[in-house]
Amino acid sequence: MKIKELEQKDEEQFNQLAEELGTIYSSAKWAKLFGENATCYGIYDGDSSLIGGFSIFKMKQYGFSIYRDLPFTPEMGPFFLNNSQSHIKKVSKWKKLSELIAEHLKKLPFSVMSLSLNHQIVDTQPFIWKKFKVVPRYKYILELNKSVEEIWQNMASDTRNEIKKGEKDGLKVEKTDDYSLIHTLVNKTFSRQKMDIDQKYVERILFDFANDNNSVAYITYDDEKPIAGALMIYDKNSSHGLLSGYDHNSKHRGALSMCIWETMKYCKEIGLKHYDFEGSMIPRYENFLRRFGGTLTPYYVINRAKLPYEFVLKFFKREIF
Length: 321
Hints:
The chain is an alpha+beta fold and about 325 residues long.
């Protein structure tokens, strides 16, 4: 096996493999939203047989050359075709591939590197052996194989009560294809929290990428005024919480919960298997997302820094370096 930067002639096959083996974040189409700083790498069996890939993002900050996950993207991947027949051979092939990825990453001209692996990847030994620091992170994933009533009953009682109170107070939730409403509500949320958000990427996601075949959005209205909204993107198996926002002038606690509940029902209705609550590592969001009944699920982040950056980061980011 070998790894090299994806060539344009292989892009269609890369996207086909990403759709079959990865998530909606795995495709070259998604990576292209983030411009020339995003790079897709192909995993080849021999010189020309493409069997998988992954994507990473390069940026400059404070003079550091940083390699990280793509913006608004929870993982680098990788995805790859492992057609080994026995369990031992499958494990051995993954170890060989992850060792190859680790060697490839070490050769990149980085100052600092922090990349997230897909949550289904639990064997990180090859990265540890190659002197990466492997750090666990967590998110909530809801299995959609239960009935709507079971999913409802598994939610926290205060969340159910907020939704019922919103309905009693006359709030209405509607599916929308006007993603400018999501854009406005997301901006209000980030502005209130005094957080920066890259507008060009948000606009590309909402207006260039999202469509009826990969996304759904719901808006909560109070007397025809949009006060909360949530956008999910999805692939053939899973939905992923991507963008949500809330007008805090409305003062109704249940408005965003109502949106998320409608997206949960929609994702079950169209036959998806999993509902992935992204962003669950952020403390102010974790408690809110926990209440929807998902299972706490670990995933792993591989970190590495060149000297002397590593010494500096050990003082300021000791938990990950």
